[in-house]
UniProtKB/TrEMBL annotation:
Residues 192-449 form the U-box domain. ARM repeats lie at residues 216-258, 298-340, 339-381. InterPro entries: ARM-like, ARM-type_fold, ARM_PUB, Armadillo. This is TRANSPARENT TESTA 12 protein. It comes from the Eukaryota.
Length: 461
């Protein structure tokens, strides 16, 4: 596990001698890591040169804060979207030129990316109703509940899937119409109830999602994303998430201007609302031309914030959405500027949580640009990745060696840092016992490390 607390404390902590492979006395500069992590801590000392004055590399990357937020006004966002529309068809996604990453297992749960998988509907079924809370707040006195639309369906106090199954096909369209009318009500309780029922109707059935989209519910749901009542906002964002799983509804959601409001939920919503907003953006990002629009609307910084402070599910949702968005180069740059690299490097060492491999996939994507590579090195990413090669899972080792290869392919300094981390023994072991893909990458990387060192000035910065 890598200690990130001191990762920016000394930009000169990796001085290299002229000969990387000549053993010498350990440098006084220390690499910070948890004590007792592995024997690599001892081995790496033998690759350090005592001649610190002969060649010292300093970081040219400016210090980054943990979270950098773009100050995006509505006019700036609209201007960006206008520029994107003008050139959308002339620019191909950079992902077409990137090496294919096997993420079928690392990000396999998108199909379950709905509030239903997190148990939110079961939680709602057990929650006290708003009317009961009002009654308690009024000393037990009876409070007249606000009327709700569609007696027998919308007025049910507890929600469950049995409600959906009880609606006959011939009654579905009138029910949807009543719920859509309820979204226009002046009553918050009616809006909340109508959004909750549409959320349930769109939960499982594709034909329901199609009908709700065709009936005009999407433009009526979007204003509720900015509603001050957190339950109303949560029902609305989850309804839009469920509706977005139907392909034709993606276009309706985008054309109705939902992206900016979904980003608003990411910034201001409850934990569950933020998670479902991230999943809704992920669903929309499955259409390639939407990725740059989502990034231009300011989605990256709040996703990074969710990555830092969210629950386990929130972090996984943020990771998956960031991965999808960062196939576009502009979004890679936004993610690096927003401070995504530091928490991603921290997650690399979280073995057994399901985060490590996903974090490395996103890091590999960010390593596709110069700024990303510099940030990974600055945040002690080489240390974390070498530890995965030594102790990680089979798939984790593949992702780790791929990312290290990206960092070192054209950069002599990074090769030196890799050698100082004691990477050669675990790379040799990986080249002999790893998967077919890992063996190939490890052999290629070892070949770079065996090349004679050129003058540092000839290396990539």
């Amino acid at each position: 596990m890598v200690s990130l607390e001191d990762s920016n404390s000394n930009s000169n902590r990796f001085p290299l001698g002229r000969n990387l492979y000549t053993p010498g006395s350990p440098s006084t500069t220390r690499i910070h890591r948890h004590a007792g992590r592995s024997m690599r801590t001892v081995r790496s000392n033998f690759y350090q040169s005592a001649d610190n004055s002969s060649c010292s590399f300093t970081s040219a990357v400016p210090e980054r804060s943990g979270f950098v937020s773009e100050n995006l006004t509505e006019s700036v966002i609209d201007m960006r979207l206008g520029e994107l529309v003008a050139k959308a068809k002339s620019v191909k996604s950079e992902s077409e030129n990137e090496e294919f990453l096997d993420i079928s297992q690392a990000f396999s749960y998108f199909s379950a990316c709905s509030s239903d998988i997190s148990g939110e509907l079961q939680r709602l079924a057990s929650l006290r109703s708003p009317e009961n809370i009002l009654k308690e707040n009024n000393g037990g006195a009876e409070v007249e509940p606000e009327p709700e639309p569609c007696h027998g369906f919308v007025q049910r106090e507890n929600f469950s899937t049995e409600i959906i199954e009880s609606i006959s096909p011939e009654d579905l369209q009138p029910t949807v119409k009543i719920c859509i009318d309820g979204l226009q009500s002046l009553s918050i309780a009616v809006k909340r109830s109508a959004a909750a029922k549409l959320r349930l109707l769109a939960k499982n059935r594709v034909d329901n999602r199609a009908l709700i989209g065709e009936s005009g519910a999407i433009p009526a749901l979007i204003p509720l994303l900015r509603n001050s009542d957190p339950w109303t906002q949560e029902h609305a964002v989850t309804a839009l998430l469920n509706l977005s799983l139907f392909e034709a509804n993606k276009t309706l959601i985008i054309n109705a201007g939902a992206i900016k409001s979904l980003v608003y939920v990411l910034k201001t919503g409850t934990e569950t609302s933020k998670q479902n907003a991230a999943c809704a953006l992920l669903s929309l990002a499955l259409v390639d031309e939407n990725k740059t629009s989502i990034g231009a609307c300011g989605a990256i910084p709040p996703l990074v914030s969710l990555l830092m402070t969210g629950s386990n599910r929130g972090k996984k949702d943020a990771l998956t959405t960031l991965y999808k968005l960062c196939s576009a180069r502009q979004n890679k740059e936004r993610a690096v500027s927003a401070g995504a690299v530091k928490p991603l490097v921290g997650m690399v060492g979280e073995q057994g949580t399901g985060m490590s491999e996903k974090a490395m996939v996103v890091l590999s994507s960010l390593a596709g640009i110069k700024e990303g590579r510099e940030a990974i090195v600055e945040e002690a990413g080489i240390t974390a990745l070498v530890e995965v090669i030594e102790d990680g899972s089979v798939k984790g080792k593949e992702f780790a060696v791929l990312t290290l290869l990206q960092l070192c392919a054209d950069n002599v300094r990074n090769r030196g840092l890799l050698v100082r981390e004691g990477a050669i023994p675990p790379l040799v072991a990986l080249s002999q016992t790893g998967s077919v893909r890992a063996k190939l990458k490890a052999e290629t990387l070892l070949g770079y490390l065996r090349e004679p060192r050129q003058d540092a000035s000839s290396s990539s910065p």
